[in-house]
Write a structure and sequence with these properties.
alpha+beta; about 20% strand; about 375 residues; six-stranded mixed sheet
């Protein structure tokens, strides 16, 4: 099985997005004025001029993970997923998230479902340290058949504090931050595998889901019981505001070489490891000491007969974010991060490469384009 046969063709999607962008006109905002765009090719968030600061915006949704939540009537994590998919992108341009708005579309309003999602969004705001500044709900019978949830996050930074990836260079060190699970990408393939084997989402997970440093959040059964397969699949996306913003603030205070020690940040979402090429496509990326693969990925691959390269092209495989840092301060940065997020570790290096690519050395999986 692969992602395309499950209904999501990443390459086709990339072509469609490129066509959309190509058809858009330039901003009506005059360069140098508030709201004017700041060029950031491949960036995870859009940057806007705002006086002595830059504003950053990102928008995303939860995707078909919502269908699993719906089937189990377990909505406690979906607001966190929505928040994480947005604020984690803001972190990748060096912005501190500060506000969020959500959009909920349903075929028919359900007060209980809306209340559960609202509670989840409140917890998401706490984890991301942001204000929920507003939102919109829409009842769209005939257009949507299930709940859809998306949102937009706003962040800010000093004018000279953007982290774009343009300064990434050979010799830089890659530090990986652990994922909490599948996060919110690849669920069309996940659901196809579930359907293929007739998996029972309410039954105990058919693998040992216990991983050091990870907590499976319980939204469908009682604490103390073995996590169900559905609970493992619904485990909320990790919000990386803590420790990333705390690290940037620590660096801004003059520690570990300052903010310029961090040259690029990558949120490992749809496209897997190929996302690194968005930071800088003129260097090579080598992952030679990857973080441990989470057990659900191993089970999905074996159950669905998915090729290894396809797994690393579709999923985070246990590493949700990557920092490219100056080698001179890499040891100190890695130690600082590991203390605050256990499981964080050096995973690879940036190299000179005549044909820039991302290589996952242990498996030989190679990606030459995003």
């Amino acid at each position: 099985m692969d992602y395309a046969s499950a209904g999501v063709d990443i390459d086709l999607e990339g072509s469609a997005v490129a066509s959309l962008i190509g058809a858009l006109g330039r901003s009506v905002r005059t360069p140098g004025t508030p709201g004017a765009p700041v060029d950031l090719p491949g960036g995870f968030g859009g940057l806007l001029e705002f006086g002595d600061h830059l504003l950053a915006m990102a928008t995303d949704g939860v995707g078909s993970k919502l269908q699993i939540a719906s089937s189990l009537n377990a909505w406690g994590g979906v607001g966190i997923d929505c928040m994480a998919m947005n604020v984690n992108d803001l972190l990748c341009v060096g912005a501190e998230p500060m506000a969020f708005v959500d959009y909920i579309a349903v075929p028919k309003p359900d007060p209980e479902v809306h209340a559960a999602i609202g509670a989840s969004l409140a917890e998401a705001c706490r984890r991301a340290r942001v204000t929920l500044a507003g939102g919109e709900t829409a009842s769209l019978p005939g257009i949507v058949t299930e709940v859809d949830l998306s949102g937009t996050a706003l962040g800010y930074m000093g004018r000279n504090d953007a982290i774009t990836g343009e300064h990434v260079q050979a010799g830089d060190v890659l530090i990986g931050l652990p994922a909490s699970g599948i996060h919110s990408n690849g669920y069309s393939l996940v659901r196809r595998i579930m359907e293929h084997v007739g998996a029972d989402l309410s039954a105990p997970a058919p693998f040992d889901a216990v991983v050091a440093g990870r907590r499976i959040e319980r939204f469908a059964t009682q604490d103390g019981e073995t996590p169900t397969l559905g609970e493992v699949l619904l485990n909320p996306t990790q919000v990386y505001v803590d420790p990333v913003i705390d690290l940037l603030n620590h660096l801004d205070a003059g520690h570990l070489g300052g903010r310029t020690s961090v040259r690029g940040l990558c949120h490992v979402t749809g496209g897997g490891l190929s996302n690194l090429l968005r930071l800088n496509a003129d260097v090579g990326w080598r992952i030679d000491a990857p973080l441990p693969v989470l057990p659900e990925f191993t089970w999905l691959q074996e159950t669905g007969g998915v090729e290894t390269r396809e797994m690393y092209r579709t999923f985070n495989m246990g590493m949700g974010m990557v920092l490219a840092v100056d080698a001179a301060h890499a040891k100190g940065l890695a130690a600082w991060l590991a203390e605050r997020m256990p499981g964080s570790a050096v995973v690879g290096t940036v190299v000179e490469d005549e044909a820039p690519s991302v290589v996952h050395v242990p498996t030989g999986s190679t990606f030459s384009h995003y």
